Task: structure prediction
Amino acid sequence: MNAIVSSASLSLDIAPYLDVAEVRRVRARVDIAVADRAWRPQVEDRSRDWVASVAAPCFKILRARRGDAACKAFCALGTGAGLDALAAIELLGADVVGVTDLFPDVVETAAGNVRRNLVGEVALHAGAGDLLAPLRASGVRFDLIYENLPNLPVADAAQVEVDKTSAAFLAPRSEATPKAVADGLLTLHYLALLQAHDFLKPGGAVLSTIGARLPLSVLTEMAEAAGHRPSFLTYWWKAQADADEVIASYAQWQKQGLFFHFYPVEVLEAAFAGLELEQAGRDALAIERDLRSYQLDAAQAWRLHRQGRRIGHTVAALLSEPKR
Ligand SMILES: C[S@@+](CC[C@H](N)C(=O)[O-])C[C@H]1O[C@@H](n2cnc3c(N)ncnc32)[C@H](O)[C@@H]1O
Result:
């Protein structure tokens, strides 16, 4: 993939980025502005980039499963630079698109990125603020709400701006959260699932993509507690991004009695070699069981990382459909 990257912008060939032969609804070469406070996509390396390696394959699976008409109204909750929305417009054929993120400048830039790179038009609803709340006044409803929200809490908004890693969000939260969800640092994912009930069309679903550093059963319990029927669309792995900061943060949480796990990258490579994405979703629990003896807790992962070992984690794409 031919990508040109500067601190404030990215320019990339979108077909290889999305791993498709050609694109119809977005420009072949997209120009993406990155707001100062925005989370920065890792487009230089598709395997590290969340949209390319997780969201786009999930959108393809959903389009094949649900058909052309089923995901026309799409929302990217916590869109960052808006690449997830462009991917959905191309891969799901979305023509009603919602985007939210925390700060107005980030959302305005993301909305500009979507508009500038379209061939044709979409009805775009963009709002800044917490989760889906900025879209409430518009009354818009979605077939698919996608989120790749952060897990690790930081203390205040100023730190989110400084930090800019995928692992930061505003804390503390006042809403009641089940203990397993709070202990799993899954609060934002849970709140998104709760809010989604008011924003989904009949037959709609939420696609939560989550670094699965905790048992998969906690993810399905979270979705059930939020009133959904969960299933795994896929289950895959990634090398830990921002490993210095993120593994160190999880090691700190371990000192406070919370447990998360990682794996050596070579174990994950071997475990997933030759697997097909959708099948891996169906086999997620069995794969997790087979990997169990290789799990590293956060302190072990941190020690090995400092010795130069490559550390990774699994990734779950959880599809949640309202029970009602
Ligand atoms: C890991 S980035 C994902 C960006 C993009 N969705 C992607 O997949 O490339 C997480 C995004 O969630 C946003 N975010 C964090 N907390 C949020 C909240 N409470 N409401 C809305 N967005 C939030 C962050 O600002 C960031 O842009």
